[in-house]
């Protein structure tokens, strides 16, 4: 058996040596042509997803990529011109998208093993091929400088939605080509080719579909650090990009666009001076349009909870960059964090309660030095005591040894957060220990005893 294996291996080696460069090119082309995603599997507007068809496609694509990986390791592959390599590898690079339904972790893993074998000129060669897929942006001149007034007026961006070649089924994965290109360009190449990079990025960022807006922001995130902020200001694109990002935040998309705030903050910090008026104005716009208005216009019921929890995450992010500056909106923040907590804590709403309480605690700690939280202690204690009572009734009065008590991690975390808020309030407003906390204990030691004891206040009588 060993002899047979050796002979087989030798035959394979001889066959490998005997293959010509033309044969290698033809074989790879035959394989990669089979990677074209069928039009019926490309998600479209109001189109249902064919999970079985996608599963079959991913399985076949995986086998093809294994074959391609073997062939690009052939010595002749390095001799193939970059232009031909791009033609052969374009479908493979189109597959390299983390959120695409036709891709998978296994597929992207193999692609990452193929990429090191590609010519370093491919990223530059990709950019000119993308122009037919993206219309000109009305806010950019032919030299990709920001216009003082969009071509066609303020509503001209709507015209972008009429012709969108990048959404055609034949354009599947086209954004992955753009992403691969800008990720692998040097800062010098990004600056030289900004006229090919900026328009498609901005077209995506201003699309009417939230998923494309996020994709555009993610692509921006890959190249913005490579571009000098001075050049961005001279071209006027700093304001154009930031305004687009803040507008996307203000839409409060459902499902939420994760990571968008971090990208926006990064671009703002790059393009503005620390503690400058401009930076403050941008941050204020985010709070006003993304958080305060987000609370106002969030959908009700189940649909709105994910949006509201994302707003909490944004508020926590803004506290990190603004610090005590958020005190300006305290009269909106505290009521909006407390108001949802007055309803029964069912399993469906507990994650929302957990998010609100965590955010409230963060607000209290951030504003500790301002002394402003004391003014809100009445509302905080009123809502949190009601919630504590409902949690107690849900679990059983004083039933700390209930066998089901520790099974619901979220409910336990909600209890802990209430205790931590009580603790934080007592540290910021010590008078609550002798006044409000003592009265709660006197009212019902069995109900509030463990909550008050968590404050570790010696003044509370037992």
UniProtKB/TrEMBL annotation:
GO terms for cellular component: cytosol; nucleus; TTT Hsp90 cochaperone complex. InterPro entries: ARM-type_fold (IPR016024), Tti2 (IPR018870). It comes from the Eukaryota. Pfam families: Tti2. PANTHER family: TELO2-INTERACTING PROTEIN 2. Belongs to the TTI2 family. This is Uncharacterized protein. It comes from Kwoniella mangroviensis CBS 10435.
């Amino acid at each position: 058996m060993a002899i047979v294996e050796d002979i087989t291996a030798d035959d394979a080696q001889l066959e490998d040596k005997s293959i010509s460069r033309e044969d290698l090119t033809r074989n790879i082309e035959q394989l990669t042509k089979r990677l074209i995603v069928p039009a019926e599997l490309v998600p479209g507007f109001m189109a249902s997803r064919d999970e079985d068809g996608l599963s079959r496609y991913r399985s076949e694509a995986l086998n093809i990529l294994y074959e391609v990986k073997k062939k690009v390791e052939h010595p002749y592959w390095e001799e193939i011109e970059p232009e031909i390599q791009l033609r052969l590898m374009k479908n493979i690079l189109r597959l390299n998208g983390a959120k695409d339904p036709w891709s998978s972790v296994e597929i992207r893993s193999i692609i990452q093993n193929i990429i090191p074998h590609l010519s370093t000129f491919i990223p530059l060669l990709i950019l000119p091929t993308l122009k037919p897929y993206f219309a000109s942006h009305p806010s950019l001149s032919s030299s990709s400088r920001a216009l003082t007034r969009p071509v066609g007026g303020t509503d001209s961006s709507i015209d972008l939605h009429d012709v969108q070649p990048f959404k055609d089924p034949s354009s599947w994965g086209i954004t992955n080509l753009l992403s691969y290109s800008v990720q692998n360009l040097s800062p010098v190449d990004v600056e030289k080719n900004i006229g090919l990079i900026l328009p498609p990025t901005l077209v995506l960022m201003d699309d009417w579909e939230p998923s494309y807006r996020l994709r555009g922001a993610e692509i921006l995130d890959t190249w913005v650090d490579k571009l000098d902020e001075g050049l961005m200001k001279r071209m006027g694109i700093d304001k154009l990009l930031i305004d687009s990002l803040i507008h996307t935040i203000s839409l409060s998309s459902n499902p939420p666009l994760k990571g968008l705030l971090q990208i926006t903050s990064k671009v703002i910090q790059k393009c503005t001076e620390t503690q400058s008026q401009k930076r403050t104005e941008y941050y204020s716009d985010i709070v006003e349009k993304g958080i305060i208005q987000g609370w106002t216009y969030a959908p009700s019921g189940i649909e709105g909870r994910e949006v509201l929890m994302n707003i909490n995450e944004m508020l926590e992010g803004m506290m990190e960059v603004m610090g005590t500056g958020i005190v300006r909106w305290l009269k909106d923040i505290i009521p909006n964090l407390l108001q949802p907590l007055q309803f029964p804590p069912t399993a469906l709403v507990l994650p929302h309660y957990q998010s609100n309480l965590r955010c409230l605690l963060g607000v209290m700690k951030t504003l500790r030095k301002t002394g402003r939280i004391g003014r809100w202690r009445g509302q905080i204690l009123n809502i949190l005591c009601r919630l504590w009572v409902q949690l107690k009734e849900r679990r059983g009065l004083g039933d700390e040894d209930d066998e089901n008590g520790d099974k619901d991690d979220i409910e336990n975390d909600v209890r802990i957060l209430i205790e931590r808020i009580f603790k934080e309030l007592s540290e910021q407003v010590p008078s609550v220990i002798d006044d409000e906390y003592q009265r709660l204990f006197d009212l019902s030691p069995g109900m509030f005893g463990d909550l008050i004891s968590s404050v570790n206040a010696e003044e509370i009588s037992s």
